[in-house]
Amino acid sequence: MNITGSLAIIGYGLAAIGPGIGVGIIFASYIQSTARQPETAGLNRPNLFLGFAVVEALALLGIAFGFIWAGK
Amino acid sequence: MSRAALVLSGDLPWPPSVDDFYLPDLFGGNSPWFTKFTLMVWLAVAAIIIFFLVAYRNPKMVPSKAQWIAESIYGFNREGVAREMIGHEGLRFGPYLTTLFCFIAVTNVFAILPLFQISPNSHIAFPAMLAVFTYVLYIYQGIAKHGFGKFIKQSLIPPDVPWWLIPLLMLIEFAQTFLLRPFTLALRLFANMFAGHIVLLVFTLGGFALLNASALWAPVSLLSWVLTVALTFLEALICMLQAYVFVLLTGSYLQTSLAEEH
Question: Which of A46, A60, A67 sits opposite B18 (nearest CB)?
């Protein structure tokens, strides 16, 4: 079988595993903490999005560098 | 031939690529001086200014619908971000955060608005400029409050660490505070809008590609377009979420700049 295209796609697939698990853990923890103590929902929400944004940045770096290093 | 006609004739620009983000000049000029992006940014600024002027032209104790929306947006940024992240001292950043939020939200929503369907933020130039504003602001605020020497010391040397770790930590903290923060701030917004547009292109054009492929694949194009609709809703969520995240991170950076020594 002959496959053509850029290897960067496979690279991005690998790069997205870590942030995917990370974002999952963050939301799981938020759900768990609010289920245990519903009154902390508002208190933790900014932290939820901060953590989400920081972890998500890794996946987005993958997208950007995937295009930069895609090879001509 | 226009892009739409190209797609319908089966001569697809497939697969979607970075070239799809370089739009032609609206007036048919050779160099792109006035593209759809220029128009969208002007439209966004005009819409925000007019909305807030109209909503607050005649403020009442019992607010009208427009006044209520305007006050909710401002209150959300002032109370939910400025006060929550920075504390009482941060209330003076309410107007900046609200402006930032509105601009990013409106320019992001162009990504799913019919006829526009691409966000100016899918070009790195716009998020980069917004990140520069925030970068200059939080460094300026830190220096204005603590003085240059103390601000640098405070942002480079974390408290209560063994002395032999300090050289290493200084490097990490420097990269973190002065290089990675503005870079990731711009890249996050850019990459989200860029990836969102690519994904929508893949599913829309993919539908046409399947339709033209063979009789066996043609029905699958329906699934592709149903997914386009679903992903458009996801995009709507991401548009607002990214505006919020950008403002939230700006607040968080300002907070670390303004924090007293621990």
Answer: A67
